[in-house]
Task: inverse folding
């Protein structure tokens, strides 16, 4: 696979959720630039979910976003899963396929959660070799997302941003920078999120995620059930200044409002992008 | 360290972490940095709590009427036991819960409608996102030459399921789905057959009379029209059987359950 630049920006999108299917195909058709579909929700024999995904893909560019690749697990790669993802991708023709830089289980168990990795050289070697295998199976470059985390392993001798940079460069994959996750982890692990952003190579970032989290006082939990908060908007402004206009979307997985509410939030992302680009070119 | 022992070490870390999330084993605690405000155990508990919540939510999403009937608290207790006994192994959380009817049978032997309702909702979900197939129109029957009828066989839509229900769980499901007060749950002396299938995108179900249930069993097993007539002879006078058989076939076609005639 030749080394390539990130996919050109698709503009501003949303994570597609079933309650918005009809609006996205009807009265709000064309209201977003692209849609991100959760891969596992469409690994199905047929019926309504795939029917709607087929219709949506005629109206919008689609990106597939998985949660079960478990790229950092020490279990063998799940070849059945990879075949199913490949078959879905052949059908949907997504602009790209993303998943998370994490592990989701060992010994055949799926914990259905994004578990943290120790940031060490041995982990790097392990994950990089698996990314190569997955990129070969899927016939395309992977896009991997930084996760929110609540623990740091004592054995970690790299920072998260150093780890992410090494992964992207050694495996020649792209990154999905979740700005909310950077913020959540910065509070939970007491680091400067700006240092994190500065540690990520510009040419590797293909997508931004924005989302809400829950403030628990001493720490934050990544819940995707609230609007994007002010601190994350500020960090997003800085991210656009650094990485330029990158495909940006809002993730909402719980307490999902009407589409118009999310479109208003997305309009703010658009405004911030415009303003960040202006301030960058003025600088 | 060699690459092999590195991998082993990562594997051990992940195994310890997973054992903590699933069973509360505490060996991982020493491998995690804590802070004064947020100690390692509290940090780890975020993962173990989220694990249970997510799987409980997944069960509630596939089995909403069971949750309604049990109430949130009792449903959560059942879910918790299930999560302990049957961890997920599938990439998609959609398939978590397939063994729940068996656990309900064990937990509530005197309330068989609970396991029945779980099995019923699982079957409804299977029809909802089951495989697609194009149903044939009524003209497909009209086009068959008379001499071909006796050996004619029919292919059914992949979402067609026949369930022998030993309780009135489908009626509980129907009432709860319509936000109506459910009937008194009862165990039946004789099982009642129910049909579930999907008509285009709409999941359908209805009860089956014994003759239609027997007819469907024969025909879904690849039986011919002649065999359909034979089985219907157990319920109907010989001279009424061809009309009965034709009537059933027409109904199945109209209901979009037939996807092939050969």
Result:
């Amino acid at each position: 696979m030749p080394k390539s630049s990130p996919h050109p920006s698709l503009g501003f999108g949303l994570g597609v959720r079933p309650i918005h299917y009809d609006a996205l195909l009807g009265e709000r058709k064309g209201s977003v630039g692209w849609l991100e579909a959760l891969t596992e929700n469409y690994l199905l024999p047929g019926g309504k979910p795939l029917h709607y995904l087929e219709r949506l893909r005629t109206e919008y560019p689609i990106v597939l976003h998985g949660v079960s690749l478990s790229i950092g697990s020490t279990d063998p790669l799940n070849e059945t899963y990879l075949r199913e993802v490949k078959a879905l991708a052949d059908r949907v023709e997504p602009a790209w396929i993303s998943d998370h830089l994490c592990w989701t289980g060992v010994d055949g168990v799926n914990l259905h959660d994004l578990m943290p990795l120790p940031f060490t050289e041995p982990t790097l070697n392990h994950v990089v070799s698996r990314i190569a295998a997955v990129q070969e199976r899927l016939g395309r470059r992977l896009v991997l997302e930084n996760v929110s985390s609540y623990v740091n392993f004592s054995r970690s001798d790299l920072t998260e941003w150093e780890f992410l940079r090494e992964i992207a460069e050694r495996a020649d994959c792209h990154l999905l920078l979740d700005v909310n996750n950077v913020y959540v982890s910065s509070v939970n692990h007491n680091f400067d999120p700006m240092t994190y952003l500065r540690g990520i190579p510009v040419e590797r970032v293909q997508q931004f995620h924005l989302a809400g989290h829950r403030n628990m006082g001493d720490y934050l939990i990544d819940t995707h059930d609230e609007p994007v908060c002010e601190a994350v908007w500020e960090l997003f402004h800085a991210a656009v200044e650094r990485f330029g206009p990158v495909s940006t979307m809002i993730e909402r997985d719980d307490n999902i409002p009407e589409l118009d509410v999310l479109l208003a939030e997305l309009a703010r992302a658009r405004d911030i992008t415009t303003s960040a680009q202006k301030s960058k070119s003025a600088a | 360290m060699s690459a092999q022992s590195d991998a082993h070490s990562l594997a051990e870390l992940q195994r310890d972490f997973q054992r903590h999330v699933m069973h509360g084993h505490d060996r991982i605690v020493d491998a995690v940095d804590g802070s004064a405000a947020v100690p390692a155990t509290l940090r780890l508990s975020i993962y173990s709590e989220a694990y249970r919540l997510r799987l409980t939510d997944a069960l509630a999403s596939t089995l909403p009427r069971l949750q309604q009937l049990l109430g949130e608290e009792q449903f959560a207790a059942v879910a918790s036991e299930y999560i302990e006994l049957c961890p997920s192994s599938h990439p998609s959380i959609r398939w978590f819960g397939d063994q729940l009817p068996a656990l309900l049978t064990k937990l509530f032997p005197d309330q068989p409608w609970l396991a029945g309702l779980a099995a019923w909702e699982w079957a409804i979900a299977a029809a909802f996102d089951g495989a697609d197939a194009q149903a044939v129109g009524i003209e497909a029957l009209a086009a068959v030459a008379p001499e071909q009828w006796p050996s004619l066989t029919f292919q059914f839509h992949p979402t067609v399921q026949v369930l022998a229900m030993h309780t009135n769980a489908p009626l509980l499901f129907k009432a709860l789905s319509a936000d109506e007060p459910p009937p008194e749950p009862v165990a039946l002396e004789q099982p009642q057959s129910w049909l579930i299938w999907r008509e285009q995108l709409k999941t359908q179900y209805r009860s089956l009379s014994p003759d239609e249930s027997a007819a469907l069993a024969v025909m879904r097993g690849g039986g011919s029209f002649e065999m359909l007539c034979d089985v219907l002879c157990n319920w109907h006078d010989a001279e009424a059987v061809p009309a009965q058989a034709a009537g059933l076939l027409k109904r199945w076609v109209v209901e979009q359950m037939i996807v092939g005639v050969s």
